TrEMBL record:
<keyword id="KW-0486">Methionine biosynthesis</keyword>
<dbReference type="InterPro" id="IPR020630">
    <property type="entry name" value="THF_DH/CycHdrlase_cat_dom"/>
</dbReference>
<dbReference type="Pfam" id="PF02882">
    <property type="entry name" value="THF_DHG_CYH_C"/>
</dbReference>
<dbReference type="Pfam" id="PF00763">
    <property type="entry name" value="THF_DHG_CYH"/>
</dbReference>
<comment type="similarity">
    <text>Belongs to the tetrahydrofolate dehydrogenase/cyclohydrolase family.</text>
</comment>
<comment type="function">
    <text>Catalyzes the oxidation of 5,10-methylenetetrahydrofolate to 5,10-methenyltetrahydrofolate and then the hydrolysis of 5,10-methenyltetrahydrofolate to 10-formyltetrahydrofolate.</text>
</comment>
<keyword id="KW-0511">Multifunctional enzyme</keyword>
<dbReference type="GO" id="GO:0004488">
    <property type="term" value="F:methylenetetrahydrofolate dehydrogenase (NADP+) activity"/>
</dbReference>
<dbReference type="InterPro" id="IPR046346">
    <property type="entry name" value="Aminoacid_DH-like_N_sf"/>
</dbReference>
<keyword id="KW-0368">Histidine biosynthesis</keyword>
<dbReference type="InterPro" id="IPR020867">
    <property type="entry name" value="THF_DH/CycHdrlase_CS"/>
</dbReference>
<feature type="domain" description="Tetrahydrofolate dehydrogenase/cyclohydrolase catalytic">
    <location>
        <begin position="6"/>
        <end position="121"/>
    </location>
</feature>
<keyword id="KW-0658">Purine biosynthesis</keyword>
<comment type="subunit">
    <text>Homodimer.</text>
</comment>
<protein>
    <recommendedName>
        <fullName>Bifunctional protein FolD</fullName>
        <ecNumber>1.5.1.5</ecNumber>
        <ecNumber>3.5.4.9</ecNumber>
    </recommendedName>
</protein>
<feature type="domain" description="Tetrahydrofolate dehydrogenase/cyclohydrolase NAD(P)-binding">
    <location>
        <begin position="140"/>
        <end position="280"/>
    </location>
</feature>
<dbReference type="GO" id="GO:0004477">
    <property type="term" value="F:methenyltetrahydrofolate cyclohydrolase activity"/>
</dbReference>
């Protein structure tokens, strides 16, 4: 039997509608809108697309949006000075520095420079620490969106075996914390994991976040499992995920497509986090 496709666009639209209502209430109460500033350094084509999508989503939701475009040659000091200015600007409630940054810039230093209560990515060590001790304050958007998608589609997490492929700070690690907090039994796999396919087959929920096109095949999937594909890989002129959708769709119970799966949720949760950051700062 073919898997049920989890449509991220529908879930994201519901989440965005809720945020939109709350943004209107926020404006009514405080006389200003929540404000997000995105900083992009350089000319990475994919980053430019993502940043323009974020900007449009903010505008559509009533969130004030500013994009600061800096040249590839921007020094680390210049970028840190920009963040200093945004940290001190009361109209800016959320700051997002689009990754990846040019090689001469230390991304970790930059992310740590953002005020934790304006860190709408949830990448600052203070927010990472909060997540690890069970305080879900500003939570990384992609894994947070995945949890919302599972919850809104009534896919049980508690007591389930969850297997995550990939241990990145952006997805794999925070995903593990969010699923653990919801009482899943979590395994995080990576490039040194032995007998990866056998481990993956234990997952009632399988999250693929490794950046390898169509890496997950049906021999790695437990029949009936929920398969979440975080990958966005360009192959020729096509976008494909980390999951071989056609192969896995006959085995999985639920599956997310690429595009139209996890991507829209990431943006919805960015809007959610921006509103949350604004609320934290204006209470
Ligand atoms: N580049 C790809 N994904 C992300 C993300 O979630 N946040 C930031 N800041 N950059 C990214």
């Amino acid at each position: 039997m073919a898997a049920e496709v989890l449509d991220g666009k529908i879930t994201a639209a519901k989440l965005t509608e809720e945020v939109k209502k709350e943004v209107a209430e926020f404006r009514e109460r405080f006389g200003i809108g929540p404000g997000l500033t995105v900083v992009i350094v350089g000319e990475d084509p994919a980053s430019k697309v993502y940043v323009s999508r974020k900007h449009k989503a903010c505008i559509d939701t009533g969130i004030n949006s500013e994009v600061i475009r800096l040249p590839e040659t921007t020094s680390q000091e210049e970028l840190l000075a920009t963040i200093d200015r945004l940290n001190g600007d009361q109209a800016v409630h959320g700051i997002l520095v689009q990754l990846p940054l040019p090689k001469h810039i230390d991304a970790e230093k930059v992310l740590e420079h953002i005020r934790p209560d304006k860190d709408v990515d949830g990448f600052h060590p203070v927010n990472v620490g909060n997540l690890c001790v069970g305080r879900e304050n500003l939570v990384p958007c992609t894994p947070y969106g995945i949890v919302k998608m599972l919850e809104m589609n009534e896919i049980a997490i508690e007591g389930k075996r969850a297997v995550i492929i990939g241990r990145s700070n952006i997805v794999g690690k925070p995903m593990s914390m969010l699923l653990l907090a919801r009482n899943a039994t979590v395994t995080v796999c990576h490039s040194r994991t032995k007998d990866l396919a056998a481990v993956c087959r234990e997952g009632d929920i399988l999250v693929a976040a490794i950046g390898k096109p169509q890496f997950v095949t049906k021999d790695m999937v437990k029949p009936g499992a929920t398969v979440i594909d975080v990958g966005i890989n360009r192959v020729g002129d096509r976008l494909v995920g980390d999951v071989n959708f056609a192969d896995v769709a006959g085995t999985a119970g639920h599956i997310t497509p690429v595009p139209g799966g996890v991507g829209p949720l990431t943006i919805a949760m960015l809007l959610h986090n921006t509103l949350k950051a604004a609320a934290l700062q204006c209470k």
